[in-house]
Design goal:
With 634 residues, the chain is α+β, with helices and mostly antiparallel strands. It is built from 20 helices and 26 strands. Strand 12 and strand 13 form a beta hairpin.
Amino acid sequence: MFFNEIHERIRFVFLISIIILLAIIIKVFYIQVFSYQKLNTLAENLWSRQLPIKADRGLILDRNGKVLADNITTVSLVVVPGQIKEPEEVAHSLANILHSNYQDMLGHVTKSTSIERVHPEGRRLSYDIAEQINALNYDGVYLLKESKRYYPYETVLSHVLGYVGIDNQGLSGLELYYDDYLTGADGAIKYFSDGKGNKLELTEVYEAPTSGITLKLTIDMDLQMVIENELDNVLAKYNPEQALIMAMDPKTGAILGMASRPNFNSNKYQEYKTEVINRNLPIWMTYEPGSTFKIITLSAALEEQTINLFEDSFYDSGSINVDGATIHCWKAGGHGQETMLQVVENSCNPGFVHIGQTLGAQTLMSYINKYGFGKKTGIDLNGESSGILFDLNKMGPVELATTSFGQGISVTPLQQIRAVSAAINGGNLYTPYIVDSLLESETNSLIKQIEPKLVGHPISQETSSLVRYALESVVANGSGKNAYIENYRVGGKTGTAQKVQDGKYLSGNYILSFIGFLPANDPEIIVYVAIDNPKGVTQYGGVVSAPVAKNVLTSAIEILNIAPSKEGMEREYSWLDKKYIVLPNVIGKTKKEATQILKGFKIEYSGTGDKVIYQSPEAGYYAPEGETIKLLLG
């Protein structure tokens, strides 16, 4: 019995031992198989360190691939306090090289941290400074690659591109709006150290940074440079308070060019006032649009069929009385009897008051809302304004009258160019946009294509066709003559808006504007120009802004490869204007006959024979009197 008890105890102890052994085996198996990665990571974190390598921001390109926002490589100073053996000596040497405070530098090199970035004096160092620090060869002192944003065109497109801070974070413009896309993933150099921070002689691991996504814009840099040059000329000639020019594809809402003055150098944004760098006037500025807004009133009346351009008429005596208020025409004595088309050509305020009255406040405001006024357009930029409209419930006869010709309401230039685009493109309202596509940074392969976004149909195609006709007539026969381009069909509308300050209209202080497009029958580009209080000139949009728009449109003809046309309206010339004549066809004529037909032109002959077999310019196009016509004989 005694031996039985011993055997029982032995078996019990053996069983317990087996259970304990199995538990140990299971635990070891669990640690090795299931918890290895977690425990290994925790262990590595105790003795591994990382020296950060900053990633490049994604590039910003124009529609043709020109680089608008680039990166240049610089270096920054990083110290590992645990590896520094003589902190006072290191601090003194670094402070001397960087021309910084010794105590501040000592604070950096003795700070109780694994890695310390010397900021701001150690950021983005020049090559000479970096060489001096590198020559010291101190333990624990590192120079790491850092990317710095660089804008090769400096002031060009500055408000659209924006700028970045010292840590490469977007602070304005596209840099801010698309910051999540443009920001890359940082890399690192991993090394191992002991508990005191001393570097161990183990293999370093390099993790390469990943650059941000590339943005390809709708902007055409050739056209943008034309816009920038025109604005510089406006500043030099008129000394305005502000000025802006926008160009857009009216069929899609794609922005082709956008600039304003004052502007700034994105590389040196710190040197400018906040009001300058943070105010992108084409999307931020709000003001009474003046006569360019008459396009909206006209389109609404044509859509509702309350007027007929050719059959209805209006007598302009020079003013019109509305509920006791007298509204004057810009022309003293008025224009007399006019067709509705002539009301548009002459930009006649009393005539447009009449057009507004045929619509009524509710109908006119419904179209203003359909065109997107009073709310943001949704463009991919920060800082957009909404504008201000009359409350329909408080809109009396006078408010209806002034709204009809663009006074008493407040809009942004972007809202205006977008709405007019819808009025001339067949009645389609689009969301304006600047980024065309997102590209992979290394291969430039397409990640995402941005498609035009259609958001409304304020008018029909038939109405839009009539609007285009009327606006082409404005340029050929009316107030927009200074935007006329021979052999091209140009449509447009002038605007002269009196400015408001403290609830009162300023005397002799106007925003002069012009909105123009071509070809008038099938628009490929629309341009909006607004010049705030130009000095030393008659303050009319047709005098100041129309010629500027003409220069931009003329350049766009070549840039966008727009073909000439023989079908445009002939311009009415005054005795001051340079005369243009439609060239007759002299091919097949004798030399003597051709000379007689082309009287008034200079003729340059080439070839032999007596018959004309080729002429340049081609017959049917306009040519200025006195121009040289080249004829080939054969």
